[in-house]
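ok trying again, last paste got cut off:
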Amino acid sequence: MTLKPDDLPSDLASALAALRAEREARRQAEAVAASAQAKLSDTEALIAHLQLMIEKLKREKYGQRSERTARLIEQMELQLEDPRDRGERG
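nice, full thing came through this time. structure:
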């Protein structure tokens, strides 16, 4: 409730009441802003946490595949070596 200069009360009691009302309105606005900032911080923290979880899950998913693929390649290479070894022995 912002008062224009022409709307300011002329007596001291009314001016004091208007000043108190302005201060209370400002205090409430600051409380709302602080609450919104806290919610924003919580949301940002949640987003960061979820992003880390996603990256961890991606590493688990793709890391296992990579390791599995590497193991399969090694097994295939060993299978290829076995017939060669048998051929050299026979």
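cool. The radius of gyration is 36 Å. The chain has a mean pLDDT of 82.
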